[in-house]
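Can't attach files on this board, so I'm pasting raw text. These are the components:
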Amino acid sequence: MAEMPIVDHKKCNGCGLCITVCRCNALVMVNNVITIIETVECDWCTDCEAVCPTGAIRCPFEIVIQEHRDR
Amino acid sequence: MAVQLDFLKGVPFFSGLGLPDLESIRGLVFEKTLERGEMVLLEGEAAEGLYLVASGVVKVFKTSAEGKEQILGIVRPGESFNDVSVFDGGPNPASAQTMGPVLLYGIRKDNMVDILRNHPQIALNVVKVLAGRVRHLLSLVEDLSFRRVIGRVAKILLEHAGDGTGHEPRLTQQEMAAMAGTAREMVGRSLKALEEEGAISLDRHRIIIRDKGALRQIIETPS
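---
Top answer:
Structure tokens for the assembled complex are below.
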């Protein structure tokens, strides 16, 4: 299952700006609230998070350590 | 499609104007429809006028001599951009590009000057908008002591790195920005720079620390 952005529906005001900037059709409006469609096309550009005026969409990063073996 | 009076009423520049005034302003506004990724204007070129975003989102940015992009702001519906060049007569101070399909309402330089002359009550609105812009840019200028921000972001990455089991809290760029006391745009730029330096790599939703030593060195480098 692909990791996808997370929507806080309490904060979502249905403005739809995230849909206009999404390049992979991962976001749709259902009953005036944003719904995420799981897709491998989502490259985590985080534009949806950047444009959301209410902070309703989050694109959280997992931070891990995998050092180069040849160092 | 006619420019909507309701939209103009909500524009901060025109706050407090009555319907007859808004009607006369509406006649001076032109529409521009653009697709995703289109350049609205280029930094340094002669300014055509200011733009109001009616729908969609526009990013305003400057480009360094090395081709690095610094986002100055994201302009959402109801907000304006390129107003500075209308008021000081200079060229476009930054470039603007659409982030999706966009409908813009434009006001040409000369027409905006006429609007100000004919409706002097909006001068205070203009001052308030530009003052807010100055405040935001001053904060960005402070952050553009770049090494300090990249060091703070590097520190946040080291402090929040997990072992890959997924138990550690994940962080958004907005959260990292809040922790680092900087703008979200600076976090994005810092992550790109750290990736270029080989200290991290970005794999979709994962930030992979490749060289802890390099990150520590960046943290310790004085600004």
